[in-house]
Write a structure and sequence with these properties.
The protein is mainly alpha-helical. The chain is about 45% helix and about 10% strand. It contains 4 helices and 2 strands, in the order H-H-H-E-E-H. It has a two-stranded antiparallel ribbon. Strand 1 and strand 2 form a beta hairpin. Helix 1 crosses helix 3, helix 1 crosses helix 4 and helix 2 crosses helix 3. The model has no long low-confidence stretch (mean pLDDT about 85).
């Protein structure tokens, strides 16, 4: 199963904040330029990460910061924040697999 681009974008967001956050205000416009996606997509992902208490997001041009030390955030935390993970399952497989007999 392929992981959607939301996870990749979320990891990129953390990398940008960690790399550029000391010198520049990290906004959805800044992130969308860096990642080359629409700012609306960035804002949706930022909202999910904020809801999971991984990021602090200020409205308007307030910027975005990481809510806790990076060594306390796992890639799985980020994944769970931006992907639909039902019942704690990382991947979803068909309940009744199709068997091909040759």
């Amino acid at each position: 199963m392929q992981i959607s681009s939301r996870f990749t974008i979320a990891v990129h967001i953390f990398a940008c904040i960690d790399t550029f956050g000391k010198d520049q205000k990290i906004t959805s416009d800044f992130l969308s330029t860096s990642i080359n996606v629409n700012p609306v997509i960035i804002r949706k992902i930022l909202s999910s990460l904020k809801k999971s208490h991984l990021l602090n997001v200020q409205r308007g041009t307030g910027g975005t910061t990481i809510a806790k030390p990076l060594d306390q955030i796992t890639l799985f935390d980020i994944y769970q924040s931006v992907e639909c993970v039902e019942n704690g399952e990382l991947f979803h497989f068909h309940e009744i697999p199709i068997i091909i007999v040759q």
